[in-house]
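Quick one - inputs below.
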Amino acid sequence: MNPMPLVALVGNPNAGKSALFNALTGARQKVGNYPGVTVERHSGRMALNDGRPIELVDLPGTYSLEPSSPDEQVTRDVLIGTQEGERVPEAMVVVVDATNLDNHLRFVLQLKKLGRPMVLTLNMIDMAERDGLKIDLDVIARELGIPVVSTVAVRKRGIDALKDALAGILAGPRPAAPVSLDADITHFQREARRIAHLAIVEQPRARAFTRGIDRAALHPVAGPMILLTILFVMFQAVYAWSEAPMGWIEGFQGWLGDDAAANLPGGFFRSLLIEGIINGVGSVVVFLPQILILFFFILILEASGYMVRAAFLMDRMMAGVGLSGRAFIPLLSSFACAIPGIMATRSIDDPKERLTTILIAPLMTCSARLPVYAVIIGAFIPARDVGPGIGLQGLVLLGLYLFGIVSAVVAALVFRRTATQGAASGFLMELPRYQLPRLRDLALGLWHRAYVFLRRAGTIIMAVTITLWLLTSYPVAPGGVKQSEYSVAGRIASGLEVVLRPIGFNHEMSLAVIPAMAAREVAVSALQTVYAIDASDEDARAEALGSQLARRWSLPTALAFLMWFVFAPQCLSTIAVVRRETNGWRWPVFMLVYLFGLAYLAAGATFWLATALGL
Amino acid sequence: MSLCQLPLRTRARITSVDWDGLAQHEARRLRELGFDEGVSIELLHHGPMGRDPIACRVGRMTIALRRAQAAAISVEPDPQQ
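Output:
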C-alpha cells in the first residue's frame, strides 16, 4: 500500500499543463511507460504547503473523455480507474487556459461528472490579463461547486494557493458513488458557455498579437514564402553556423590523436585507441554542432506555435498524396531524426495516415546522413560556384534532400492506394497563440538531444567501431595481401560484394555498409578505419578520409554510394521505434524490404547512368 | 450560407451544423473544439492552394479545418457587427 496520495493533472492540450507539472514537482520527476501502450507516464513528487508528500501524475492532454488516440485513451482510463498499472487517483488538478475559458470549461464539466474531488486552475492568467480579459474566479467556483485558483505556471505564480486548495479537497470526503462517464458534449458545451458568460467580466479584443502575425504567416502568397524562407535559412544555418565548432572538435580530436601517438608505446592498444576510438568515434562526434543547429530550429518552430501554421500551409499539398497537414510536423522533425519524427506521428488520429507517415519518415534526410553526404560531397564535388552565392556542393546536397522528399511523395501516393489504403483523412487543428520560446526549455531540449547523440557515439558507435577495427585487423595479412581483404571483416564483405558489385560498390564500401546497419554515420568511421588499417605508414594514415576517397573511388561509385544512403534504412533505432509504434514486426519488415529495394535500384541506376555518361 | 462562402473577417453566427453529414469522429472533434449552433464565428484565413484549408475563430480559439468539413456548417453574418 502506497501511503502517498495520487493526484492526476488533467487538461486540454495547449493549456500549459506540462509547465504547471514542472512548477509543482521541480526536478523530482520520473518518466516511465504505461504497460501495453506506447504512452509515456510522467509522474513526480510534490509536497503540500504543510510538507505532506503527494505523487502527481501528468496525464496526456485531451479535449474530452472520448479518446481518439492512444494518449487520450490513457487519460480516460486512468480517470475512470481502469488503466492497468496505475492507481486510481484520489483527486484531480484540472488545468484550463484562462484565455480560452468557454471551450475548456466543457471538459471541466465532463470531468466533474466523474465525481472525484477536483481543483480547477486557470493557467496563463497573465495572458488573459494582457489580452484585457477579466475573469471572476468566485463565479466559476460557485457555479461549479469546486475550488478555483489562478496560476502562471511558467513564472510559478499561484502555486502555493493551488497547493492549499489541493490540501483542502484531499481532507474532504471521498465520493461513495462509482464514477460515471457522461458523453453528451453538446449539453456540457452549452453549460460551459453559460458559466463563461457569467464569469467573464470584461471581454477583450481578440488576441491582436497572434492575429497580426497570422495575417502575414498565413497569407496565401506571403505565407508559403515565409515558410520557404524559414526552411532555407534553417538548412543554410546547419552548414554556415557549424563550420567553426566543427573545426574546434576536429582540432581537439587531432590533438588527442597526436598526444596519444607521442606518449603511448606503439602496439595493439595504441592502434586501437587512435584508429579505433579517437578517429572512429571522432569522425561521428564532429557532426554534433550540425545536429544541434537543426534541432535548435525544430524546437523553436514547435515552441513558438509556428509549426501548426506550417501544417496549415502544407495541408492541401499533403492532401494530394493522401496525407494531411498534420503529417507535415513529424516529417519536418524527421529531417533532424526519424525517431522523434515517428514518435510525433502519435498526434495523427487516422491510423492509416499515421502508418503512411511512419513508413515515409525515413526518407526525410536525417542528420545521421549528413556525415556520409558531407564526406562524399566534399571529396567528389568540386567546391565551385555555379551562380552568385550558390555553391555546387550545397546544390548537390539540396538535390539529395529534394530527392528524398520526392521519393517520399511517390511512396505515399503508392502506399495510400495499396498497403495503407483508406478514406482520405481530414484536417482539424487548433492554431495556438504565438509564444516566445523560453530559453530554459530550449536549452533543456538541446541538452537532451546532445546527450542522446553523444551516448550513442559513446556506446553503439564506439562498440561497432571497435568491433570493426578488431575484425579488420585480424588475422594479420601476409606481405603483399591487403589487410582489409584478408581479415575476418574483409571476408564477410567479399561475400556481400558479390551482391553490391553490380551497383558499383567496391570492397571497402561493402565492408562499411555492414556496420552502418547500426547507424548510418558509422559508414564514415568504418571507411576511416578500413583505410587507416590498409595504410602502409603514418603519413598515409594521417591522410584525410576525403582525399583518400577521391583518390580511390570513381565518380559513378561515389554517386551510387550517395544514392544508396538516400534510401537505405540503416538505423537500428528507427527499426526498433517503428516496431514499437506499430505493435509488431510486420511494418518494420515491410519498411526494410521496400527501402533496401529502392536503395539498390537507385544506386544501381545512378552508377550505370553515370558510367554510360562517361563521368 | 455555408462557412466556406463567408467573406474573410466577417463576424457571423452558426445557424446549424449538419452533424449527420459528417463522419462521427469529425463531428465529435468539431464539437470538442467549440463548434455548435449559436456560436459566433469569424473566417480568418484561406489556405494558399484552392483556398483550402480555412482557419476560423470560434469562441476564443482559432481552428483550422478543411472546406469539406466546413461545408457542413451553416452561418449567417452577425448584424450586430
